[in-house]
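Handout, page 2. Input:
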Amino acid sequence: MILAPGGENPRPELEPSQRSVGIRLAKRNHAIDKIQHLRARIYRLETPAVIGERKRTSAWTNCFEPRHYEPHIKLLRPGSGI
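Output:
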């Protein structure tokens, strides 16, 4: 998929050679456990001063937008010539 805001929606105006291209990992992917472990180390640092009245981040939600966490891996950089 082309990595861009609103990437789940068809965006025919986006040129893949000018945007990053990647894949989204499903929850059943073997890498998810390691990604979630790394992510947990980061969201433990959330304090009330940082997030205010928002609900804290969890394994599959974010306290900031977008609400639901979907891990992606970038495969190609823009302008890679592929």
